[in-house]
Amino acid sequence: MIERKCPKCSEWNKDEDHCIKCGEALSPVAVMAKREKKRVEEEAAKPPSKFDLFLERAKNSKYLLVRWGYYVMYSVFMVIGAIGAFMAWLVAMANG
Ligand SMILES: [Zn+2]
């Protein structure tokens, strides 16, 4: 039998995932789940960056030209990313 002392209210719990008194996460699994949940919540609460907003606006623009511009820019970024990955692969091969 494992006994865990609650870090929050100092209550001794038997093999519980959460404190019987205050509900604080006690087991490593519960603590990790809590941390992950908090991280996801923080990520969701973060306002989108100006660049994200700009992209979103361009994508949904009523002007066809702006939407095209978005897709052209997006494609260019993709190609640059692909070339970058290819270069990194080449360098890795050359050194290997
Ligand atoms: Zn507690």
Could you please describe the fold and organization of this structure?
The protein is mostly helical and 96 residues long. It is 62% helix and 4% strand. It folds into two domains: 4-45, no CATH class; 50-95, no CATH class. The protein has helices at residues 28-45, 50-59, 64-95; strands at 4-5, 12-13. The protein has a two-stranded antiparallel sheet. It is elongated, with a radius of gyration of 25 Å. The structure holds zinc ion. The site of zinc ion has 8 residues, from loops.
Please summarize what this structure is:
The protein has 96 residues and is mainly alpha-helical. Helices cover 62% and strands 4% of the residues.
What layout of secondary structure does this protein have?
Layout: E1 4-5, E2 12-13, H1 28-45, H2 50-59, H3 64-95
Antiparallel strand pairs: 1-2
The structure holds zinc ion.
Zinc ion (ZN) binds at residues 6, 8-9, 11, 19, 21-22, 24.
